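Hey,
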Amino acid sequence: MHHIPDKNDITEVLDAFYTLENQLSVLLMESALTMPRFRVMAFIENHQSVTLSDISAALKITNATASVLAKELLKAELIFYKKNPDDARSKFIELTSNGRDRYYIASDSLQKLYKSLTKKIPSSTVKAGKMFFREMKMQFKEKN
């Protein structure tokens, strides 16, 4: 049996997302990052030899948006470009040591927030929430 949300359910979910997004933004600001920049840095850190096309495909953003974010990160000296030996037209992107440090400081802050939020919630509820979001993500993938 599927749950049919009423307007109050939707408002409650949107309020929770908004509150979480604000908390994440505040934490990232402490590392002088935004959520889009952090997502790009996380992708670069967790994958080897990435290009702008890889970033745009993985993060589901346009090439133009990926390019703008990369330019911002480059200007802030958080990333650098490296020649791609297999394709002279593309470049690999890597984090600088400062970028890696900033990424891990921000990541640690986000982990602490997650732990503080979930420590007061029964593990079965946390598990159900993870399952809910996993299912929702799969449904969005099926529609696209």
